[in-house]
Amino acid sequence: MEKEFYVHESAYVDDNVELGAGTKVWHFSHVQSGSKIGKNCSLGQNVNIGNNVTIGNNVKIQNNVSVYEGVELEDFVFCGPSMVFTNILNPRSEFPQRGSEFYLKTRVKKSASLGANCTVVCGHDIGKYAFVGAGSVVTKEVPDYAMVIGVPARIAGWMCACGSRLELSADLHSEEGASCSKCSRQYTKKGIKVKQK
Q1: 146: which strand partners?
Q2: Cis ω before 152 (30° cut-off from 0)
Q3: Backbone Cα Rg of the chain
């Protein structure tokens, strides 16, 4: 019986792993035991998926990304090249902290995009349709539709589901509305909560 997924001959997929139909695991990648990867995902070159990680459908993980235990990626998440997740807040080589009881959870919600070389410090969720700019360091929760940039990352604007920037202010106390200039989706903003109408 032909497999519904593709694993390059240089990649390793441990036992007790679920790979969805249409998923591709490329050169020198490793998917560790207990992980569940949805349909139509792409794991680029030199990607490591830790033990017991859950990844949704249609997720794109670019080259040189490690998704550690404790991190969950929902559907349509994009992880840019060489971006970084962590799972232990205060690591010590001398005093190892292994096992799920030590790992702080990080959830990246539906359709969020994480730019190249950004870092997501563990324990902070990324909202749906959020954008994290290249090279940014996330040290707190990122709201839905927010665009965050910098070190540490801060809200610099708001993004439409289609990926266009919205004409909404970065003022965290304002109330306003906007229409996407590209796809005409309508949004309302109240403080740091942005919702699609």
Answers
A1: 158
A2: yes
A3: 18
